[in-house]
């Protein structure tokens, strides 16, 4: 019992430190994890065994893939091409950029996506002499929605995919359709919110239309090679079940090959600049802390309580998890939340059939990913986007973001509820 | 080691008759060739001195000029000095003391140390006044010997820095900064208050950055844009923005006694080509990589 309380205290203090960012979140998570080991809650071997290396290596592999894809200039090329395709009309650009951001973010990490595309939006808004703020807010939102679509799109999905035996294709079957529906309805909301008030002069429009976006592709050969490797990687992901491969192996092989193709002499630089070691060790620390909760029996206790409360009603359990995750993720980082929820839900597995667990897992994924739009601090992509705007003299307050974000989040969660309700029951 | 040890009374003269630097050079070369055995003829040496001077000026702000050449196969360092009662114009600088040094191709250390000692002496106003009032070379030699001017071991940054650099007030407008940078052809200006306290510095890139927003810096590549309005409209901002809004106050500064090697090291470490020299909070000079190059490496 004492061990349980101690484990909970370490867990809660770490959580508060991560939420408030009083210290760097990697430091907080690792410190929590190793203190749990030091005070004897869990043996070090056991704690390190709790680290899901499939997740860590999938993240490393995808970071390598991203670093090469970013180098090719393809995403910024697409963004400029999109703006020109929209004939430099602001509302059209905004809607198309929403789609592009959602699409890119379905394949890449959300933060990387906004870091590449938000500067382009600022540039376009500057040329058109319109406020970039609506673009920045909607793009952050789009990145969180798009990230829901696939296993690679958002860390909660990576965590869930690795902890369960769901394959890459299972995520596509279960999450992509609903993501498309939510994206389309979000485009409608964007249209309603911003349809008025954005006008541009012909002169400004002409400046944008003069962009020579083809120059962004510095090395066509590298682009074709990279896209080929990424294409093969995606096909392998889709055939994951047939080939009996774990996602981390596929991503690592693709990432390493891409790095060598891009520039084998720059590998050291990629390791230093593009592999986000802070995030990786943040995950390691979280896994260790959660392992201490499992070891001391806290997780089992809470799992049993949950089952006692909701009984065996899968439908109610799913909807509760969807909304609870949605609201919780709007306030805190969804990574520690999902890391903790996974063993809790695994603890319930004995009480339900294999089939019955499906809506519960998908509800967790939908809630955790979509909830991030609820407030400014709900997702890293929001914080990063608003940070970029801030450094360029455009100040978006917590309230400014949240009053828009809440509309999109409620819309997403309501649609997700209807989807879970009708698709799985 | 003393400076006087490198001198002979007959290598020193005090003159009134010269009106340009070539006359001084000719006189000094003649003197050196008369008293020392050099591997090549005096007219050839004079040519070398003049062509070296044409490459870059040998004049220092303290009123001293040090023409010099390095001779292949000459295993010594010889010095001749001429104090001018009527200063001569050396490309804008009034020079009242010319010291010709002929040295070998390899031992730059001895040479640099002599230069440092000469520079230090040239900045000692009291001594310079006294020397200029002496009757002849013999008296000057004795004066220098009595003063005990030492050839110090290492030349330091105070010896080669630009003293009294152009500065700007933190409340000055960017337009004033533009006038200074353009008019004086400088790319870095130290920022000081009325009491000459060092506050920071502004460089040409900080200025241009006003027209280049942060988001552009996040793009890997800007070759798809050919014009950019904020940069073209930089002049609109320069009448409203102040120097303190763009100045950097956390820049590395050097102490006057910093060695040359440390200066070069710091310049490379921080990738800076201009550094401010600060002594007890007061700005005392500016040193550029080009100063180091011109006055030390190519000296």
Which keywords apply here?
heterodimer, A: mainly alpha, 0% strand, B: 299 residues, alpha/beta, CBS-domain, 5-stranded mixed beta sheet, 11 strands, elongated
Could you give a short description of this structure?
Chain A has helices spanning 2-20, 25-38, 44-49, 53-72, 74-85, 90-107, 110-128, 133-147, 155-163, 168-194, 202-209, 220-238, 240-243, 247-263, 267-273, 277-296, 298-310, 314-331, 334-348, 354-371, 380-391, 398-424.
Give the secondary structure arrangement, pairings included:
The complex is a heterodimer of chains A (425) and B (299).
Chain A: H1 2-20, H2 25-38, H3 44-49, H4 53-72, H5 74-85, H6 90-107, H7 110-128, H8 133-147, H9 155-163, H10 168-194, H11 202-209, H12 220-238, H13 240-243, H14 247-263, H15 267-273, H16 277-296, H17 298-310, H18 314-331, H19 334-348, H20 354-371, H21 380-391, H22 398-424
Chain B: E1 12-15, H1 21-35, H2 42-55, E2 64-65, E3 68-71, E4 78-90, E5 93-104, H3 108-122, H4 125-132, H5 137-147, H6 157-160, E6 162-163, H7 174-184, E7 188-192, E8 198-203, H8 204-209, H9 214-217, H10 229-232, H11 234-237, H12 243-246, E9 253-254, H13 260-269, E10 274-279, E11 282-288, H14 289-297
Helix pairs in contact in B: 1-2
DSSP summary, beta strand count of chain B: 11
List how many beta strands of chain A DSSP finds: 0
**Portion of residues within helices of chain A:** over 70%
Specify the number of helices of chain A.
22
pLDDT averaged residue by residue of chain B: 87
Oligomer: heterodimer
Hey, roughly how much beta strand do the residues of chain A contain? under 5%
The fraction of residues assigned to DSSP E strands of chain B is 15-25%
- CATH overall fold name of the largest domain in chain B: Mannitol-specific EII, Chain A
Main pleated sheet of chain A: none
The SS-based structural class of chain B is alpha/beta
* Tally of individual domains of chain B: 2
CATH class of the largest domain in chain B reads: Alpha Beta
CATH-scheme architecture of the largest domain in chain B: 3-Layer(aba) Sandwich
Tally of DSSP helical segments of chain B: 14
How much is the average pLDDT of chain A?
92
Radius of gyration of chain B: 23 Å
Largest two-chain interface: A-B, 26 and 15 residues
Largest sheet of chain B, if any? 5 strands, mixed
Order of helices and strands of chain A: HHHHHHHHHHHHHHHHHHHHHH
């Amino acid at each position: 019992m004492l061990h349980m309380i101690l484990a909970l205290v370490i867990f809660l203090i770490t959580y508060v430190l991560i939420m408030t960012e009083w210290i760097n979140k990697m430091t907080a998570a690792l410190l929590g994890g190793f203190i749990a080991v030091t005070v004897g809650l869990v043996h070090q071997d056991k704690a390190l065994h709790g680290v899901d290396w499939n997740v860590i290596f999938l993240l490393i592999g995808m970071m390598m893939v991203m670093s090469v894809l970013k180098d090719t200039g393809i995403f910024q090329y697409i963004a400029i091409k999109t703006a020109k395709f929209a004939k430099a009309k602001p509302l059209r650009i905004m809607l198309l950029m929403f789609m592009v951001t959602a699409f890119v973010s379905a394949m890449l990490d959300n933060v990387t996506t906004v870091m590449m595309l938000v500067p382009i939006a600022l540039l376009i808004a500057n040329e058109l002499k319109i406020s970039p703020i609506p673009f920045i807010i909607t793009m952050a939102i789009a990145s969180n929605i798009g990230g829901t679509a696939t296993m690679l799109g958002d860390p909660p999905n990576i965590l869930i995919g690795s902890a369960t035996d769901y394959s890459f294709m299972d995520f596509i079957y279960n999450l992509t359709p609903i993501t498309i529906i939510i994206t389309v309805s979000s485009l409608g909301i964007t249209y309603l919110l911003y349809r008025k008030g954005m006008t541009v002069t012909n002169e400004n429009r002409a400046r944008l239309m003069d962009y020579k976006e083809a120059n962004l592709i510095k090395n066509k050969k590298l682009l074709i090679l990279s896209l080929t490797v990424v294409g093969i990687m995606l096909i392998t992901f889709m055939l994951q079940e047939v080939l009996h491969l774990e996602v981390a192996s596929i991503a690592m092989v693709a990432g390493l090959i891409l790095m060598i193709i891009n520039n084998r002499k720059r590998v050291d630089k990629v390791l230093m600049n593009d592999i986000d070691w802070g995030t990786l060790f943040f995950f390691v620390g979280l896994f260790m802390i959660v392992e201490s909760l499992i070891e001391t029996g806290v997780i089992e206790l809470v799992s049993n309580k949950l089952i006692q409360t909701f009984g065996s009603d899968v439908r109610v359990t799913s909807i509760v998890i969807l909304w609870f995750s949605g609201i919780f993720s709007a306030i805190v980082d969804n990574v520690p939340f999902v890391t903790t929820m996974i063993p809790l839900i695994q603890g319930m597995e004995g009480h339900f059939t294999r089939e019955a667990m499906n809506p519960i897992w998908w509800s967790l994924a939908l809630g955790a990913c979509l909830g991030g739009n609820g407030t400014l601090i709900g997702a890293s992509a929001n914080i990063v986007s608003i940070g970029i705007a801030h450094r360029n003299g455009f100040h978006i307050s917590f309230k400014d973001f949240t009053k828009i974000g809440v509309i999109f989040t409620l819309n997403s969660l309501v649609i997700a509820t209807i989807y879970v309700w009708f698709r799985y029951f | 080691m003393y400076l006087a040890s490198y001198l002979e009374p007959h290598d020193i003269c005090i003159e009134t008759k010269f009106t340009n630097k070539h006359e001084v050079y000719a006189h000094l070369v003649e003197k050196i060739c008369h008293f020392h055995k050099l591997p090549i003829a005096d007219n050839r040496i004079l040519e070398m001195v003049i062509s070296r001077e044409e490459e870059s000026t040998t004049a220092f702000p303290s009123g001293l000029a040090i023409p010099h050449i390095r001779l292949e196969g000459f295993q010594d360092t010889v010095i001749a000095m001429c104090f001018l009662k009527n200063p001569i114009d050396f490309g804008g600088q009034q020079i009242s003391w010319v010291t010709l040094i002929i040295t070998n191709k390899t031992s730059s250390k001895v040479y640099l140390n002599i230069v440092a000692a000469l520079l230090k002496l040239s900045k000692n106003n009291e001594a310079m006044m006294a020397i200029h009032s002496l009757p002849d070379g013999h008296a000057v030699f004795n004066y220098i010997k009595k003063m005990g001017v030492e050839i110090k071991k290492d030349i330091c940054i105070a010896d080669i820095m630009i003293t009294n650099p152009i500065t700007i007030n933190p409340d000055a407008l960017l337009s004033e900064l533009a006038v200074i940078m353009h008019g004086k052809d400088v790319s870095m200006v130290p920022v000081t208050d009325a009491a000459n306290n060092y506050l920071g510095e502004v460089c040409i890139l900080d200025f241009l950055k006003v027209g280049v927003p942060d988001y552009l810096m996040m793009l890997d590549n800007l070759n798809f844009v050919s014009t950019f309005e904020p940069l073209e409209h930089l002049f609109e901002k320069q009448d409203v923005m102040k120097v303190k809004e763009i100045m950097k106050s956390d820049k590395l500064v050097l102490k006057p006694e910093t060695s040359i090697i440390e200066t070069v090291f710091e310049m490379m470490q921080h990738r800076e080509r201009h550094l401010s020299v600060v002594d007890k909070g007061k700005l005392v000079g500016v040193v550029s990589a080009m100063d180091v190059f011109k006055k030390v490496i190519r000296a």
